[in-house]
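Q: what does this look like with adenosine-5'-diphosphate bound?
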Amino acid sequence: MTEIFVVNSGSSSIKYQLVELETGNALVNGLIERIGEPGSEAEDHGAGMKLALDHLGDGHDIAAVGHRVVHGGTRFTEATVITDEIEQQIDDLSPLAPLHNPANLIGIRAARKALPDIPHVAVFDTAFHRTLAPEAYTYAIDAAVAEKYGVRRYGFHGTSHKYVSERAAEFLGRPLADTKTIVLHLGNGASACAIDGGRSVETSMGMTPLEGLVMGTRSGDLDPAILGYLHRQGGYDFDALDDLLNKRSGLLGLTGSGDMRDVEAAAGGGGTSEDDGAEGVGAAVAEAALAVYRHRIRSYVGAYWAQLGRLDALVFTAGVGENSVSLRETTLVGLEGLGISVDPARNASKSRAARYISPDGSPVAVLVIPTNEELEIARQTFAAID
Ligand code: ADP
C-alpha cells in the first residue's frame, strides 16, 4: 500500500492527513490550530509539523508529501515536485495570493526540514483551470495593464472540482470525455465550475478567491466601482476595502454570522422579530440573506448551462452542498425549464455516499458528491513522483 502525507498549511494552522492511496482511506487525520498564539500547542509551524509527525507515529512508509498550494499563477499547470527553485517560484506568486501562498510555503519549508529524504509535491488549486479559454479568463480591461500585472481569471478549488466532476461521470457510468457537468462547491469559500469532458471551461472565482458566489465572509461579485466609491465617500483605504470584502461580507456581512448553520437555524426559527434567531441573527434578515445566496447560484447555473450547451450533471459538494437539505431544495426552484429539479425525499436522505437527488428520468442528474481534496492531492502527488 502507498501512503501519502497530505499537508494543508494556513497562516495559523496545519491540516494533515495520511492517505492510503489504493483504498482512499485516511489512516491519520489531524489539525493543529492557533499556531503561534499564546497557549497554543505549537509555537511555530516547525513545532506544529513535529506534532503532526509524532501523531503519525512510527511504522509508516511515506512515499511522498503532498502540499496544497493555493495559487500557481500561469507558471504551474500541474502538480510539481518541490525544489528550492520551485519554493522560490511559489513565493514569487505571493502578490497574487498574499493570504495563502506565504502560509502554504511556511508549511512546505517545515515539512521539507522534518522529512528531508522524502519527495515533496506542490498541488495547486488553480491548476485544474489551466484549460480555461482566453475568452473565459480575460477581463475586459486595458490589455497591456492586464499583461503587466498578471490580471486574469485563474480560478480556485481546482482539486475539488476535478475530483467531484470525475466522480460524477463515474457515478453516472458515462465516459468523462462525453460528460458536461456543473459543480457547486459550497463551503466557507464557494465556487461554481463548468466542466466539459473533464476540462474546466468556466469558473466563478477569478484572479483571487473573492469573485463569484456569495460566501461565508466574502462578497463574491460586485461592481468594481464600489471600491472607488467607498474610498471617496467613506474614506476606506485599500486595506480596509480588502478586509471589508474578504472578511466582513458574504453571509457574515448580511446577517452577522458567516456560518450557514446559524443562518439556516435563524431563518427556520419562524419568528418575525429582528433578533430572535440563533447567534442573534434575525429570521427575516437570515431569510433575505439566503435568498441572495440562492439567487446568485441560480444565475451561475443558468450561465454555465448556456456555455456548456447541454448539461448532464449538476453536483453539490463541500460543507453546505453536502449537508444542507433545505439549501439544495430551495436553490434550484424555477430551473425546471432547464431540466433541473430535486426530489424532496431523495434530497432529504441522510446518506453520506454519492447519490442522486433528482427524480428518475430527469434530463439533468442532480447529485450530491462528497468532495475529497486530500485524496485528490494524494493522487496527484503520487503521479508527480512516478
Ligand atoms: P471550508 O471551505 O472551510 O473547507 P466546509 O466545506 O467545511 O468549509 O464548509 C463549511 C460550511 O458548511 C459552513 O458554512 C457550515 O455552516 C456549513 N455546514 C456544515 N454542516 C452543515 C449543515 N448540516 N447544514 C448547513 N450547513 C452546514
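The chain is about 40% helix and 15% strand. The first strand starts at residue 3 and ends at 9.
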